[in-house]
Amino acid sequence: MTKVYLNKRITPRIAQGHPWIYNNEVDRVAGQVEPGDIVEVYYFDGKLVGRGYINPESQILIRLLTRKREDIGAVFFQDKIKEAWAYRQKLGYTENCRLVFGEADGLPALIIDKFNDYFVLQTLSLGIEKWKASIVEALQNIFSPKGIYERNDVPVRELEGLTQQKGFLTDPFATEIIIKENELKFYVDIENGQKTGYFLDQQDNRKAIQNIVKGADVLGAFTYTGTFEIHAAHYGAKSVLGIDISENAVAQANKNAALNNLQDIVKFEAMNAFDVLKNWGREGRKYDVVMLDPPAFTKSRANIGKAVTGYKEINLRGMQLIRNGGFLVSSSCTNLVSPELFLETIEMAARDAKKRIRQVTYQSQSSDHPIIWGMENTHYLKFLIVEVCDR
Ligand code: SAH
After folding, report:
1. Which numbered atom of ligand 1 lies nearest the CA of 198?
2. Of 82, 197, 273, 340, which residue is least crowded by CB atoms under 10 Å?
3. Same domain, 149 and 204
């Protein structure tokens, strides 16, 4: 196994447990490596750092898989996945969960979503891609699944010199499945849905709207397949309207409403939420609850300012649509917008909208997406409910 030695002066990050090693942190690679190889990493003084996979084509040269001198192979991956499942079970997950959340589960660049008997996999780096067959085998051994599907149609793979692709990793199966969440049923389109087909990260947050939607007129924007809105109807909203720009998402959302026999209360329409929020505010429309769950606004540091402008705009408009004493439910999944910046942005929006806000709850992603302190990119979802009052 090729040995890699770090620079004398490295950031404390690596010693403190962060699994990424950048090109400029390495003093020398003692031998030949093929992209994706497992290498053994040492500090400058010869002490072991651990083992991980290397890709000279990537900015992140090495991602550590272990801090021990242990074999990286089929057994290693099977044990890690078992560990990840045991953790989720301990937290109360039984059917659906993010089974593996990459770095947060010690398996860098690997995502596995479990939808009951079906699994959706993303291998986002070359080093983990090489172990795909072992990972699939491990899932088969542990879960005897009805099907495994790969949703590697994501641009980040290109940074690793990988192609974008999707398809079956087991015998083909019908890719539109039904899952249950909080007593409700949802279609999940594993093949053509967004990301892995369903946003598991909002599971707990969907529950958090339970009390504030009772008897309310609710507007949801950026609804995708309508999970929040259908929850609102289920929890006793008087009327719910959901807006998404994607015709496909709207069709799925209406199907989901019917699946739960809530089609008389909750409706979805394909429109641009930015226009709707602005125009309906001008027209003086009012709702008791407005819910916003936009997609990530930027993936690059250069555009953080634009992302903040976007959040301010929709939250300001959203607040203006809320009846005195109603509630705003606002999410942000942009990794680069920190929790502090997000909350500041909401505060600015409230000021400009001339509203007084009171925090009802502030949460993050559900616990099957563990947050590792010191690994900022594991803490990406911000979820806020505020009461909105006229000033
Ligand atoms: N709330 C959803 C996830 C939303 S994902 C859930 O819990 O499952 C973000 C959604 O915003 C996507 O479905 C995307 O189609 C939609 N979207 C993106 N830009 C939009 C716009 N300008 N207007 C309305 N919807 C938009």
Report:
1. 8
2. 340
3. no
